[in-house]
Design a protein that fits this description.
With 266 residues, the protein is mainly beta. It has 3 helices and 15 strands.
Length: 266
Amino acid sequence: TTKIGSGPGKQNQIEDAWRNQIPIEGTIVKEMKGGFEIRIGGSVRAFCPFSQTGIRREENQTDFIGRSLSFRIIEYGEDGRNIVLSRRAILDEERRGKKRELQTTLHEGMKVKGTVTSIQKFGAFVDIGGVEGLLPVSEIAWSRTEKVGDILSLGQAVEVIIKKLDWDQDRYSFSLKDALPDPWERIVDEYPVGSYHNGTVARLAPFGAFVTMKEGVDGLVHISKLGAGRRINHPREVLKEGQAVEVQVEAVDRANRKLSLVLAEI
């Protein structure tokens, strides 16, 4: 990146940077309609549209005022009186360079460090150092995730497993839960058939009640086992969500991650 001097030849330096597409240093001085005013060499005014700043939606634009950054001149008109800059062009080039490097080192199944860059209802986006991919809500934890923001926060450092790398389509997906111990690994030893345990009713469905035994392990009490001999139409007639219950393990299916339960006799 070229730092434009404050002497009389700076306009020629700026024009030369435009003709040769050399990045220059500019300071963001204020926000204006549609973008930022940038100063080059201390006094030359330029404009950078919001769409060319490379600032993420969740970043505060006013935090960038006063910062010196690298820009590429994308328009140079009226003998330097109309200069339009782009920071995104430089960021895109850097990202492409990092992507080329990562293609030689990354592979599916690898554990990598990343940073949460965006939180959505359907999951979170994670940057692993030049490649940004999706961490779907179903891959965040072994337990059921209701709200992504309750588990992850913007800027949080995470270790994820690479699930999919599609370099051609620029689509990458990760898993956080696969980087954590599998709570079902020793399920047969921890919950043998016939054993009694305390749990909490997690949610009710028309066919039965899901009971959380520990984080990442839910069992099902089928509706046919809830009426104490009488027929019921919905589990809510007997249980409510959040209720503490004692259950007995009826069957364990490690392969399909299923735990069949019955309410302990009172």
